[in-house]
Amino acid sequence: MSVDLEVLEDPARAAAALMVAAAIGGGHIVLAGGSTPKAAYTSFVDTVEAVGLDLSRTTFWLGDERCVEPDDERSNYHMIKESLLDPLARLSDLSPVRRMKGELGPEEGADDYERELRGAGPPRFDLVLLGIGSDGHTASLFPDQESLSVTERLVVGVPEAGLEPFVPRITLTFPALSASRQIALLASGGSKAEAVAKAFAAGARPDPHVPSSMLAPHAERLTVLLDAEAAQGLTR
């Protein structure tokens, strides 16, 4: 499939608009950690407050988690709760977020979330938000790890992270990510430019050294939202 690359002044605001579209009527949205998604959540909250969007039928999932307690500052859920869920709870009725229980450890936590997903259908996600690391990883799918080739599971444990913080992880697999109507990958800043170019420049091919490059064959629709600095490697 083709990849829709968008170079924008504010990728986070564009991602927030996609969240609004997915939430209207009640959708399943997969959330990501990271600074750019965090900015998207703040923008989304502002929009919900401005228009009075009803989120009572919207379900939030997590794409990956660090194996720490949920109130640990390294936890994706901790960031998401502070920047998105707590502000939204003051504005709208929310369904309980389907969080990954990182405190259970990588294997038990992955099994728990696998059961959660399969017990829900599993759902077809309306929107999956992802970031990209400087090493090309996305979610907690790191270069050259066995998780990249998993086909029979929706969730796996990652005993060794390939990038800081070096704690075990839980992550959705490519089959789970592909069960979505749209994947939106966000990148901001020059530190992501090389990884973005390796994953999405003209002629890029799926490569386990660059896990983000492996999204396109799995995705129904893949939108990459970049600022100018993150996109600079695409034109070299």
- What is the straight-line distance between the termini? 23 Å
Measured by DSSP, the beta-strand proportion falls in 15-25%
Structural class: alpha/beta
Q: What is the residue-mean pLDDT, rounded to a whole number? A: 95
Question: How many individual β-strands?
Answer: 9
- What composes the largest sheet? 6 strands, parallel
Radius of gyration: 16 Å
Helix share of residues? Answer: 25-40%
Spatial strand sequence of the major β-sheet: 1-9-8-5-2-3
Order of helices and strands: EHEHEEHHEEEHEHEH
- Total number of helical segments? 7
**Low-confidence blocks of residues:** none
Shape: globular
Describe the fold and architecture:
This protein is an alpha/beta fold and 236 residues long. The protein has 7 helices and 9 strands. The chain has helices spanning 11-23, 35-51, 76-89, 106-119, 174-177, 193-200, 228-231; strands at 4-7, 28-31, 59-62, 64-66, 127-131, 155-158, 169-172, 183-187, 222-226. A 6-stranded parallel β-sheet has the order 1-9-8-5-2-3, sandwiched between helices. A 3-stranded antiparallel β-sheet has the order 4-7-6. Helix 6 (193-200) links the parallel strand 8 (183-187) and strand 9 (222-226). The longest helix has 17 residues, at 35-51. It is globular, with a radius of gyration of 16 Å. 46% of the residues are buried.
In short:
The chain is α/β, with parallel strands linked by helices. It is built from 7 helices and 9 strands, in the order E-H-E-H-E-E-H-H-E-E-E-H-E-H-E-H. It starts with a strand and ends in a 5-residue tail after the last helix.
